[in-house]
Amino acid sequence: MYKLRLLFIFLLPAVLSAQSYKKLHQRAVVVDTHNDFPNQSIEKNVSFDQHLKGITHSDLKRMKEGGVDVQVFSIWSDGTFEAGKGFARANRQIDSLYAWTNRNPSAMMITKTVADLKKAVRQKKLAVMMGVEGGHMIEDSLSYLDRLFERGVRYMTLTWNNSTSWASSAQDETRNAVPNGKKGLTAFGAQIVKRMNELGMIVDLSHVGEQTFWDAINITSKPVITSHSCVHQLCPVFRNLKDDQIKAIAKNGGVIHLNFFSGFLDSTFSKRNTAFLLAHKQERDSLKAINPEPHFTEEYLFAKYPEEVKSLRPPLTLLLDHLDYIVKLVGVDHVGLGSDFDGISSAPQQLDDVTGFPLITKALYEKGYSKKDIGKILGNNFLRVFRANSSK
Ligand SMILES: [Zn+2]
């Protein structure tokens, strides 16, 4: 009996802690600002309301399991979808989101306003939001921008890796290959940022070059976000945020949503990943002949060698390191989560798919973050920015 009681006393804190973080996660409004499922669904010919475990990072059932309340789906296409193609490609993905939502009205709800978002959360439906990732999809047209807003798009990432005619990307700026030789926003780019402010479409500064970042943050009259970016000081890759950028976002009242991609979190990942790919060079070359897209070969090899791939993944604590860094630099009001699930080939250990979100809450809880602060990180910070952008 004594032994039993002793065992109980030892186990009690662990049991309580498990209950607490689960309850905390359940009660919080959990927002993920970046998920690439709409494009993934085209490439893999699958639907969000299917069971896709082992095929994708996300589906409706697993998102529920992960306790995600609000998902901003990325409407993405690469730079080959330019004039005459980008807007149609964006609408095709938006059509899919509407179709899945219409088929599952008791589980999903298209969310255009803060009131919609609250209603969806209250009714325990997934709040479906949209962000266009890549300004090339408006095809240099302000009326296309307006039409995307009407359909529900609530942020636009000014550029993806490719620059537009009006904004230079981080990839192009760092490689010194900016179209027209000019970094930053053009006069038309400034007009687009202003139009987004008027509409209530959040300016997303993930992927943009540093000059575009500074131009946009000086022009915007509303708080901005980065929907999926990490800390340059901890992992110096071309599109992570430098300290002065993090401080500027905080000053603007904005939020940095952290990307879960191993290569943006762990500065050693790229080197180790290259070594893995080199070890399978022969196979990779024959795959390239079938489909030259790098993500095709990577995905194939990743699926084929799961044990090797697992060892490439950084620990979950590294994601928390990026989070802590931002909190220490500018406070807890300016950080959130933007997983990039279904757009990334590797995430930290344990974050296998969208069901992993509660583990982040657990880690935050164990680190001693208060209930209020955890609520901010999980979603209330995003809500603040969404509300500020919606007000006239
Ligand atoms: Zn991206």
Please render the helix and strand layout as text.
Blueprint: H1 2-27, E1 31-35, H2 37-44, H3 60-65, E2 70-76, H4 86-103, E3 108-110, H5 114-122, E4 126-133, H6 142-151, E5 153-157, H7 170-174, H8 187-199, E6 202-204, H9 210-219, E7 225-226, H10 243-252, E8 255-258, H11 262-265, H12 269-279, H13 281-290, H14 294-304, H15 306-312, H16 317-330, E9 335-337, H17 357-367, H18 371-390
Parallel strand pairs: 1-2, 2-4, 3-4, 4-5, 5-6, 7-8, 8-9
The structure holds zinc ion.
- Poorly predicted ranges (pLDDT <50, ≥5 residues)? none
Q: Which ions, cofactors or small ligands are bound in this entry? A: zinc ion
H/E topology pattern = HEHHEHEHEHEHHEHEHEHHHHHHEHH
Q: If classified by CATH, what would the architecture of the largest domain be?
A: Alpha-Beta Barrel
Task: Tell me the name of the CATH homologous superfamily of the largest domain.
Answer: Metal-dependent hydrolases
- Give the number of DSSP strands: 9
User: Count the helices. How many?
Assistant: 18
Strand content: 5-15%
Q: What's the number of structural domains?
A: 2
* CATH fold group of the largest domain: TIM Barrel
